[in-house]
């Protein structure tokens, strides 16, 4: 019988990751269990993917029902599951057209290609500049990683795609000075996730929206991490004064089943005519059936109000630990996407604290440089939040001991 251990990873996997020194074998709700029987409180949510927790019973039921009917059929057909999810997304957003893919990177890749195609069709090949922002993250394909504002992820894979400009995030004056009629698209996250849980300033968002309109540039909002209830509204843009031209979504949209989507208007969508773009697995019936269940669950006003309430509880608890240990300079974020920013002299210690937390039975994330990131399941129980915070308290006591 084949024996699998944590060491098997080092033997057979391409080393893009450096996973914790344990082998996860089971998940239930907001808990994970390893091969040695250890139990962990999960404040990572699969990096904001497991929106309804691990092995949610409702998700299991949908999967069991759908796999008896149709798993994959290809995009030379259409099917009820795919169309149902598309209708649900248009119902709960300001968009009328949807394209499905398998991940956030693919969603952003498609959105960027669509923006370039719109500009080419309407204004010619010279209107091709894409503006992005420092510390942003938009995926790992060569195009999306080059558009992302972190050179460490794109250096060494050149030559990079051209006509991409990176500007300082939340810097209104610099944006005003640079955007022009050559700009075809601006892409940003309402809250930069990988960059360190940095929220877009409302005035900055409004300025970007207005100048995109005046320069005939499309505004793409990357809601791969902030969307599907993560920030307390169904999509984070719905808590702002702007509406983007294109919205990308993924992560929590199918509670752990790979999916992504691009949403836009009729007018923009028509520039992706048959043959201009595609995806073999995108919009497969299984993922879309689960996605429909997730949308039905999370779009409920009471559910979203609960996310806000749980976010307040977690944020308040983190503020208390900030006061207790004095190692954080601020707690930021919205809903259940929160970041604890380490003091300047501790900026290189986030990974160490993450490892100590795991030792005490708590999984957390890091973000940017020196930020502890928290993105638990949206339906996490209040008692589990308290349990996880108590474990974080112990880990921080260990970290700060003399």
Automatic annotation (TrEMBL):
Q: What is its EC number?
A: 2.6.1.11
Which residues are N(2)-acetyl-L-ornithine-binding?
140, 279
Cofactor(s) recorded for this entry are: pyridoxal 5'-phosphate
Cofactor: binding details: Binds 1 pyridoxal phosphate per subunit.
Enzyme class label: transferase
Cite a single GO BP annotation.
L-arginine biosynthetic process
* Residue positions binding pyridoxal 5'-phosphate: 104-105, 137, 222-225, 280
Q: Where in the cell is it found?
A: Cytoplasm
Q: In which pathway does it act?
A: Amino-acid biosynthesis; L-arginine biosynthesis; N(2)-acetyl-L-ornithine from L-glutamate: step 4/4
**Gene3D superfamilies for this protein:** Aspartate Aminotransferase, domain 1 (3.90.1150.10), Type I PLP-dependent aspartate aminotransferase-like (Major domain) (3.40.640.10)
Q: Which reaction does it catalyse?
A: N(2)-acetyl-L-ornithine + 2-oxoglutarate = N-acetyl-L-glutamate 5-semialdehyde + L-glutamate
InterPro entries associated with the record: AcOrn/SuccOrn_fam, Aminotrans_3, Aminotrans_3_PPA_site, Class-III_PLP-dep_AT, PyrdxlP-dep_Trfase, PyrdxlP-dep_Trfase_major, PyrdxlP-dep_Trfase_small
User: One GO molecular function term?
Assistant: pyridoxal phosphate binding
What positions are modified (N6-(pyridoxal phosphate)lysine)? 251
Instruction: Please name the Pfam families in this protein's record.
Output: Aminotran_3
- Miscellaneous note of the record: May also have succinyldiaminopimelate aminotransferase activity, thus carrying out the corresponding step in lysine biosynthesis.
- Fill in the subunit field for this protein: Homodimer.
Name this protein carries in UniProt: Acetylornithine aminotransferase
Source species of the chain: Succinatimonas hippei (strain DSM 22608 / JCM 16073 / KCTC 15190 / YIT 12066)
Q: Which gene encodes it?
A: argD
């Amino acid at each position: 019988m084949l024996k699998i251990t944590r060491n098997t990873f080092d033997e057979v996997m391409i080393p893009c990751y450096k996973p914790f020194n344990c082998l996860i074998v089971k998940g239930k709700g907001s808990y994970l269990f390893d091969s040695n029987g250890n139990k962990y409180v999960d404040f990572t949510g699969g990096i904001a993917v497991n929106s309804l927790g691990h092995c949610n019973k409702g998700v299991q039921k949908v999967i069991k029902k759908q796999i008896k009917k149709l798993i994959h059929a290809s995009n030379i057909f259409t099917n009820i599951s795919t169309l149902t999810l598309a209708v649900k997304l248009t119902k709960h957003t300001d968009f009328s057209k949807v394209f499905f893919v398998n991940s956030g990177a693919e969603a952003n890749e498609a959105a960027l290609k669509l923006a370039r195609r719109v500009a080419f069709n309407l204004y010619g090949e010279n209107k091709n500049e894409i503006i992005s922002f420092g510390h942003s993250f938009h995926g790992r394909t060569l195009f999306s990683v080059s558009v992302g504002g972190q050179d460490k992820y794109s250096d060494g894979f050149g030559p990079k795609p051209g006509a991409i400009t990176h500007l300082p995030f939340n810097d209104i004056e610099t944006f005003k000075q640079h955007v022009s009629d050559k700009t075809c698209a601006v892409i940003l996250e309402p809250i930069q996730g990988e960059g360190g849980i940095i929220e877009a300033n409302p005035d900055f968002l409004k300025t970007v929206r207005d100048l995109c309109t005046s320069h005939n540039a499309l505004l793409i909002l990357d809601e791969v991490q902030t969307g599907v209830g993560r920030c307390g509204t169904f999509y984070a843009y719905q808590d702002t004064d702007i509406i983007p031209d294109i919205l990308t979504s993924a992560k929590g949209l199918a509670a752990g089943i790979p999916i992504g989507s691009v949403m836009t208007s009729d007018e923009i969508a028509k520039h992706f005519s048959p043959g201009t773009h595609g995806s073999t697995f995108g919009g497969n019936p299984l993922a879309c059936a689960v996605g429909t269940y997730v949308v039905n669950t999370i779009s409920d006003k009471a559910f979203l109000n609960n996310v806000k309430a749980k976010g307040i509880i977690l944020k308040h608890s983190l503020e208390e630990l900030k006061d207790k240990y004095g190692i954080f300079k601020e707690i930021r974020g919205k809903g259940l996407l929160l970041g604890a920013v380490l003091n300047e002299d501790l900026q290189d210690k986030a990974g160490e604290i993450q490892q100590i937390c795991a030792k005490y039975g708590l999984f957390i994330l890091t973000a940017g440089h020196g930020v502890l990131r928290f993105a638990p399941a949206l339906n996490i129980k209040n008692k589990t939040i308290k349990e996880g915070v108590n474990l974080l308290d112990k880990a921080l006591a260990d970290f700060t001991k003399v």
